[in-house]
Structures are given as structure tokens and as C-alpha cells.
Amino acid sequence: MIRVTLPTHLRTLAGVTGAVELRVEEPITQGAILEALETAYPMLRGTIRDITTKERRPFVRFFACGEDLSHEPADASVPAEVAAGTEPFRIIGAMAGG
Q1: Which pTM does this prediction carry?
Q2: From CA 45, how far away is CA 80, in angstroms rounded?
Q3: Where are the alpha helices (DSSP H) in 1-98?
Q4: 92: Cβ contacts below 8 Å, ≥ 6 apart
Q5: In order of start, what are the domains of the chain with their CATH numbers?
Q6: What is the mean pLDDT of the chain?
Q7: What are phi and psi of 14, to 5 degrees?
Q8: For residue 16, pLDDT beyond 70
Q9: Is 2 in contact with 33 (CB distance < 8 Å)?
Q10: pLDDT in tens, 49-70
């Protein structure tokens, strides 16, 4: 099982209170995790990535094992710890401003 943490506003939208656990078929990639997340929680479609292009939305970032994975290709494998379920795949809302 893959653990995914969501920012507060997406947890509220999905109706969950903590990390979600998802069964993801191999190969375990960012794209596969996001597909499983949107399948399990269809109300999140379009909030994390564009519905048509599947591109990550601006101000949304992906982290795992202390690394920013936001600019990795969607079909790149996630770290082994995420695939094993020992570390979460984190979706974070970035902030901007001055």
C-alpha cells in the first residue's frame, strides 16, 4: 500500500482526516499514484493536475524521502521507500508572494 499525504484543503474535499492508503499497480510512478488517488477520490480530479493534459497544477508540489519530485516525469519511478509503503508520497500546496 502506498501512503499519500494531502494538504488540508484537499483532505477536506476528499473527506479524509489523515494520510490515504492506495493500492497501486507496478510500475509505481507519480502518474500511477495520482491515477489511483483520483480513482479512489474522484472529487480530487482536476485539483492536483490538469484533467486533459495530466500536467501538475502550478503551486502543487510532490515530495518523497526529503526530495522534491515535482519536476520529475510522471512515468519516473518513485523512491523505493515510497513503493514499499515505508515513506509517504507527499502532495503539498506551494506558496508564493513577497
Answers
A1: 0.93
A2: 26
A3: 8-14, 30-40, 80-84
A4: 7, 60, 61, 62, 63
A5: 2-93 (3.10.20.30)
A6: 94
A7: -80, -15
A8: yes
A9: yes
A10: 999 999 999 999 999 999 999 9
